[in-house]
Amino acid sequence: VVIHPFKTIELQMMKKGFKMEVGQYIFVKCPAVSKLEWHPFTLTSAPEEDYFSIHVRIVGDWTEGLFNACGCDKQEFQEAWKLPKIAVDGPFGTASEDVFSYETVMLVGAGIGVTPFASVLKSVWYKYCHDATNLKLKKIYFYWLCRDTHAFEWFADLLQSLEAQMQERNNAEFLSYNIYLTGWDETQATHFAVHHEEEKDVITGLKQKTLYGRPNWENEFKTIAGKHPGSRIGVFLCGPEGLADTLNKQSISNSEADPRGVHFIFNKENF
Q: Which residues form the FAD-binding FR-type domain (predicted)?
C-alpha cells in the first residue's frame, strides 16, 4: 500500500495467472470493510509490470474503511501480514490496444478519466525502452483536463518521472502533454504568473506549463493535422459524453476527403 497526497492510496497486488491489458478495470472486495460490496477500479499499472495496481481516492464510507483497514491511519510501517485480505474479480473492459496501431495518437483524459492513461502511458514507455524500432507509435499528444490537480497528485508524479526518463534518453519529443485546469480562469491564475518565468510549473512541478480554462479543440486538431500530413491519427477519450461529441465532430471535420490526406479516427468505446 502506497500513500499519496490528498487522501489517495495505491494498492499494488500480485495474483497467480493475472494478465491485463492497458485501460482495463477490476472489481475489488475487502471483506474486512464489507462482505458484500464490490467496487470497480481502473488498473493504473502497465501489463509489463510484475504487479497490478489501482489508485483509490478516499471519498466515502467504503474507501474510508479500506484506508483504515490497510493501516493508513497509523504512523508506523505496516507489515504485509497485517494488511487485509482483498478479493479481485477481473480484469474487464475492452483492451485499448488500438493505441499501438497508430503512429500518432491524441489521448484525452478528463477528470477521473485520466486514470486509464496511467496504464497506457507507462506501457507505451516500457515498449519504447524495450524495442523502440518495432513500436509503431512515434508521437503522443496527451490532454489532461481537470478542475484541479489535487486529487491526481500521483498522476502528476507519474508524468514527472516519464518526462525525466524521456529527457535522459534524449527523446522529450515523444510525448507532448497539455494540462488544462478547467475550474480556473486567467484572473485567478494571474498571481501564479509571477512565478511563470520559472523553469517548472508552480502547480504541477512539470516542465510543461499548466493552461487555464478549456482547450480550443479546433486549433488543436488543425495544428496536429498540419504536423502530420497524410497520416491516420487515433483520437482516444476517457471522459464525459459532451466532450465525446465535440471530439467526434472535430475528428470528422478535420479529416480530408482524399484517402491520402490526414484522417482522425475517434475511439471512445475503447476505454
A: 1-98
Q: Residue 141: is it exposed, middle or buried by C-beta count within 10 angstroms (0-12/13-18/19+)?
A: buried
- CB-side exposure of 254: number of CA atoms within 13 Å? 27
Residue 216 has pLDDT above 70, yes or no: yes
Listed in sequence order, the DSSP H helices in 37-196 are 61-69, 115-131, 153-168, 186-193
pLDDT of 182 strictly over 90: no
Q: Which of 3, 119, 9, 124 is nearest to 57 (CA)?
A: 9
Amino acid at 200: K
Q: Per residue in 96-116, pLDDT tens?
A: 778 999 999 999 999 888 899
Q: How far apart are CA 175 and CA 152, in angstroms?
A: 19
| CB-based burial label for 21 (10 Å; 0-12, 13-18, 19+) | middle
* Contact (Cβ atoms closer than 8 angstroms) between residue 126 and residue 46: yes
pTM of the model: 0.87
Angle at 101 between CA 99 and CA 144, to 5 degrees: 20
Q: What is the pLDDT of residue 203?
A: 55
Give 196-207 pLDDT, tens digit per residue: 455 565 556 666
Taking the alpha carbons at both ends of the chain, their separation in whole angstroms is 26
All structural domains of the chain, each given as residue ranges with its CATH number in brackets, are 2-92 (2.40.30.10), 96-269 (3.40.50.80)
Q: How many CA atoms lie within 13 A of 37 on its CB side?
A: 11
